[in-house]
């Protein structure tokens, strides 16, 4: 078995390029996976291509439909060398067929490697955004200016990265005589851009209920607290209300969590321990019961809640409110926290 | 299977049996579950045909059974004669071949009352029978090992008799089915022959689904009942309580059968897909079974 043919795919087994996609929940990713294989098969006429969907949130009917679409779209000479395998609960299922057991045994090894319980690989952190969030946090908290070294430590990045970011934010910064740095005004444009790119920067994952018996955010929090995790903090409406009890909102439509993940892998297996009824949403249009945002900097700035558990810092909570389209509440929260009368 | 109103049936049974026997009767099974979840709303129904009634304590159960059955027979109730063991026994019938006391009310054959009793302390075997001599012949009063779990701390109804608690009915079924056994029920459920284990484990899931977040309290109740009823072996029982559910989780076909029985029983008004039932199962494992196991491990 060779690994990563053309440095593109996860493995090659018996002249078959294997691409493993785990936790797939968007049809466009499935199509992209098939297309990637099809491109390569064009220049490798003796090879086959196999897309393995491990623990995918795609129904069989949807899969059949996509397979039919691929049949209609791709040339027969390419399509006939493609296949899709699903891998769920330790079992493979083939579209259109299941390969022999000897092949499956070797495939199992590849799938195991690519879907390691240690989590899925994360892209490089967006350090600009992490530094921006930290500076805003200090500004809201009226904290002392920070040294560049302190920023490096809290973010977990090198000096040039910090320096480059501070250069970009220079018009909004004040520097003290000892080179400490702080925001002097709120960087509205950068903040707006962060809100726009929030899902990407924070690797936001939305979960919807598939049980038919939706649990309340309070119920989810109770279960989360039982896990005793220090890397998970409550954000969103509950977190914002913890920082600012007068937040004007009746009810609480969903639970936002911030997962502190300074490393390079993302492990979301805790969601099933909070509620097995939650699965990744197929689209942004589905009303989420739980939304998980990933925090990449080194220091989480989580704080303990009086009733137990942890809450995310005000900046993460503010971003959560924007992400939930609770603009009025976001503005109210910001005004309550801002050191001077200001609007984001 | 018939649609019956829990409150109407409880009222009818309580009015028909000797008044002094009411505190000794515990209704178990679908009707007890229906009473808890559908309350006294006469417009809500449970699909069942047998009204299982446990007579306690065991040492007076035969006398109670004779008093209850004779009064019902005197009021026109009739023995259920169809099915296996439909004919009354006599003095020559071995105890384990005796038919159970099953009586239809005079005005309908849609449902019948069946009499049972609690097991002896420490009784670990299958069904045991106590002989009941009625004017109509010899009958048996069955008990089985985990019936004492079902009747642990029952709830008193306004009708004078008691109903088993949902969590105790669930626990008894879990203990009864540590595996999915292949035996299928002789009676069909909407034309399908269902494995007894799938029906009973499905019942557990239906009870859990209807109980909602109260399931989080079950492990403490279970531990208390097990420690009280089985002081010498409660930990090993607690540690095997989840085995049947885990077997069900690993078998999509059995889970489908369990969903089918739920949708033709307690969940008829709120049917579930097998996928939804799987989630209920996983939630039950997390919220009740795993905490019970943790308690047993100390």
Explain the layout of strands and helices.
The complex is a heterodimer of chains A (344) and B (298).
Chain A: E1 2-3, E2 11-13, E3 16-22, H1 27-43, E4 48-54, H2 60-73, H3 76-79, E5 82-88, E6 91-95, H4 101-114, E7 120-121, H5 127-140, H6 148-155, H7 159-168, E8 173-175, E9 181-183, H8 188-196, H9 198-201, E10 205-209, H10 217-227, E11 232-234, H11 236-243, E12 255-260, E13 265-266, H12 270-274, E14 278-280, E15 290-295, E16 303-304, E17 310-311, H13 314-323, H14 327-337
Parallel strand pairs in A: 3-4, 4-5, 12-15
Antiparallel strand pairs in A: 1-2, 2-3, 5-6, 7-13, 8-9, 10-14, 10-15, 11-12, 16-17
Chain B: E1 2-4, H1 6-16, E2 25-28, H2 30-38, E3 46-48, E4 50-55, H3 58-74, E5 78-79, E6 102-104, E7 112-117, E8 128-134, E9 137-143, H4 147-150, E10 155-156, E11 162-163, H5 166-176, H6 196-211, H7 218-229, H8 234-240, H9 243-249, H10 252-263, H11 274-297
Parallel strand pairs in B: 2-11, 4-7
Antiparallel strand pairs in B: 1-3, 2-4, 5-6, 6-7, 8-9, 10-11
Helix pairs in contact in B: 1-2, 5-6, 6-10, 6-11, 7-8, 7-11, 8-11
């Amino acid at each position: 078995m060779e690994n990563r043919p053309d440095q593109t795919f996860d493995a090659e087994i018996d002249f078959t390029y294997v691409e493993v996609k785990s936790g797939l929940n968007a049809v466009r990713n499935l199509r992209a996976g098939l297309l990637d294989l099809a491109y390569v098969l064009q220049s490798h006429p003796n090879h086959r291509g196999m897309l393995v969907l491990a623990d995918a949130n795609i129904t069989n009917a949807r899969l059949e439909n996509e397979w039919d679409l691929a049949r209609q779209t791709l040339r027969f000479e390419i399509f006939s060398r493609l296949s899709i395998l699903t891998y769920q609960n330790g079992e493979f299922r083939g579209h259109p067929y299941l390969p022999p057991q000897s092949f499956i045994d070797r495939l199992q090894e590849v799938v195991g490697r690519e879907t390691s319980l240690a989590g899925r690989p994360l892209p490089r952190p967006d350090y600009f955004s992490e530094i921006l969030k930290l500076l805003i946090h200090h500004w809201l908290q009226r904290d002392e200016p920070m040294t560049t070294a302190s920023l490096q430590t809290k973010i977990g990045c090198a000096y040039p990265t910090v320096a480059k970011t501070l250069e970009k934010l220079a018009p909004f910064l004040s520097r003290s005589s000892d080179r400490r740095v702080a925001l002097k005004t709120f960087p509205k444009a950068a903040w707006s851009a962060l809100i726009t790119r929030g899902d990407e920067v924070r690797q936001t994952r939305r979960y919807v209920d598939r049980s038919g018996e939706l649990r309340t955010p309070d119920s989810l929090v109770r279960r989360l607290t039982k896990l005793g995790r220090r890397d998970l903090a409550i954000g969103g409406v509950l977190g914002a209300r913890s920082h600012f009890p007068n937040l004007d909102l009746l009810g609480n439509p969903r639970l936002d969590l911030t997962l502190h993940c300074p490393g390079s892998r993302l492990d979301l297996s805790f969601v099933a321990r909070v509620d097995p009824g939650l699965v990744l949403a197929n689209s942004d249009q589905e009303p989420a019961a739980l939304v998980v945002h990933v925090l990449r900097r080194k220091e989480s700035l989580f704080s303990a809640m009086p009733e137990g558990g942890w809450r995310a810092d005000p900046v993460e909570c503010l971003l959560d409110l924007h992400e939930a389209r609770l603009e009025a509440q976001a503005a109210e929260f910001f005004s309550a926290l801002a050191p001077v009368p200001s609007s984001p | 299977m018939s649609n019956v109103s829990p409150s109407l049936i409880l009222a009818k049974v309580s009015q028909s049996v000797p008044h002094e026997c009411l505190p000794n009767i515990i209704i178990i099974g679908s009707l007890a579950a229906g009473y808890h979840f559908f309350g006294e709303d006469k417009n809500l129904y449970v699909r069942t045909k047998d009204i299982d009634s446990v007579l306690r304590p065991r040492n007076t159960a035969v006398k109670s059974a004779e008093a209850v059955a004779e009064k019902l027979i005197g009021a026109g109730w009739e023995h259920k004669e169809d099915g296996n063991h439909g004919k009354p026994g006599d003095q020559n019938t071995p105890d384990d071949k005796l038919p159970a006391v099953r009586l239809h009310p005079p005005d309908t054959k849609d449902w019948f009352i069946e009499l049972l009793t609690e097991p002896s302390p420490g009784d670990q075997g299958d069904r045991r029978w106590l002989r009941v001599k009625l004017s109509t012949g010899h009958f048996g009063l069955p008990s089985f090992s985990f019936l004492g779990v079902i009747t642990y701390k029952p709830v008193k109804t306004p009708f004078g008799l008691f109903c088993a608690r949902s969590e105790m009915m669930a626990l008894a079924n879990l203990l009864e089915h540590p595996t999915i056994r292949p035996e299928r029920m002789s009676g069909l459920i909407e034309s399908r022959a269902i494995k007894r284990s799938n029906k009973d484990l499905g019942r557990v899931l239906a009870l859990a689904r209807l109980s909602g977040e109260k399931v989080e309290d079950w492990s403490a109740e279970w531990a208390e009942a097990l420690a009280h009823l089985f002081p010498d072996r409660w930990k090993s029982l607690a540690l095997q309580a989840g085995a049947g559910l885990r077997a069900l989780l690993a078998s999509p076909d059995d889970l489908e059968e369990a969903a089918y029985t739920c949708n033709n029983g307690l969940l008829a008004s709120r049917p579930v897909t097998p996928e939804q039932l799987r989630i209920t199962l996983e939630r039950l494992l997390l919220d009740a079974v795993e905490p019970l196991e943790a308690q047993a491990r100390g």
